[in-house]
Specification:
Layout lengths: L1 H5 L3 H56 L1
């Protein structure tokens, strides 16, 4: 799916992975991935909270208009 979105094939992804390995080293990659994972998790939580607030606001408007 990632390759379809950005037009990258398997060879390009391998080269990018090797470059990341050279820049960050083997010990820093798990830290980097943990940070990325927690950032994505926080983003999804914030998105869910906003969706909930919008839905509750719409329900309140429907009750007032009825």
């Amino acid at each position: 799916m990632f390759s379809l979105i950005f037009g990258l094939g398997p060879q390009e992804l391998i080269v990018i992975g090797m470059i990341i390995l050279v820049f960050f080293g083997g010990k820093k990659i798990p830290e980097l991935m943990r940070g990325l994972g927690s950032g994505i998790r926080e983003f999804n939580n914030a998105k869910a909270n906003i969706e909930t607030e919008v839905k509750e606001g719409m329900k309140e408007l429907d009750k007032k208009n009825s």
